[in-house]
């Protein structure tokens, strides 16, 4: 029961007016198997709670599910606010993109529940949330944090596809709360799962990352090879697990893929 006592769980089930499910294990290093319990089973439990009284359910997913929809040549380059249920993650995603895969499963689970029981459902897809409290094992906050600490950015162009899309935590929270305090959205949204993207209209191309950092921080940044940057970040305190993961990715020539989404 999500770590709650039976009485606490029952009290919430009987009194909550809406559920915003933002609890998840966020890590780009973990497999789907290790994330299934905290990220998928918790979603099912909370959806059942919402169903008991028919209250609205807001699921905080991730923009990274766009990687499954936009990986083919004939796929859109940027994902609109639509379902990705038909875009099944490739077999290697359970190991290489475990977090995104767990959120994809959560979205599909909620769409099935909506289809069967008409649960009022919103699926929110934030891009890279920046600000205080960003997870220490989430790649983009790590990149930002250590770039600031060492005064240098890695050369991301050539090995990074997609765009950097930063949204401040307060902006993302305001967007979710606005939906939660609404009365169900517009009339044309009634009778379907609603997808909401929380993203920045101003994307940052990989080649422009250094310029972005210099503008946002107000000082100059050195540009290092990714290998040099990882070593410098390690000296500045980068977690050993993250360091080992990045070193392995570099040794294997694994590309870094960033999702691209837009509103509408």
From TrEMBL:
Domain Thioester reductase (TE): 2-173
Keyword annotations from UniProtKB, A to Z: Phosphopantetheine, Phosphoprotein
Keyword Transcription: no
Keyword hit for Phosphoprotein: yes
Protein name stated in the entry: Thioester reductase (TE) domain-containing protein
Species annotation: Lomentospora prolificans
């Amino acid at each position: 029961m999500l770590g709650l006592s039976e009485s606490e769980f029952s009290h919430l089930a009987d009194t909550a007016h809406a559920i915003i499910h933002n609890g998840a294990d966020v890590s780009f290093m973990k497999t789907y198997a290790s994330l299934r319990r905290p990220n998928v089973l918790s979603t099912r439990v909370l959806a059942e709670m919402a169903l008991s009284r028919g209250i609205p359910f807001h699921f905080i997913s991730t923009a990274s599910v766009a990687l499954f929809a936009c990986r083919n040549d004939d796929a859109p380059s940027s994902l609109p606010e639509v379902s990705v249920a038909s875009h099944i993650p490739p077999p290697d995603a359970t190991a290489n993109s475990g977090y995104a895969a767990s959120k994809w499963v959560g979205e599909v689970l909620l769409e099935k529940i909506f289809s069967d029981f008409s649960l009022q459902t919103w699926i929110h897809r934030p891009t890279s949330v920046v600000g205080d409290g960003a997870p220490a094992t989430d790649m983009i906050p790590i990149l930002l944090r250590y770039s600031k600490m060492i005064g240098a950015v890695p050369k991301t162009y050539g090995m990074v596809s997609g765009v950097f899309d930063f949204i401040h935590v307060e902006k993302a929270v305001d967007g979710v709360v606005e939906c939660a305090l609404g009365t169900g959205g517009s009339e044309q949204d009634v009778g379907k799962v609603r997808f909401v993207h929380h993203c920045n209209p101003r994307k940052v191309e990989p080649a422009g990352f250094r310029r972005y950092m210099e503008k946002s921080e107000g000082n100059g940044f050195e540009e290092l090879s990714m290998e040099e940057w990882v070593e410098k970040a390690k000296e500045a305190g980068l977690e050993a697990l993250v360091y080992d993961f990045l070193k392995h990715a570099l040794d294997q020539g694994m590309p870094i893929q960033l999702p691209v989404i837009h509103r509408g």
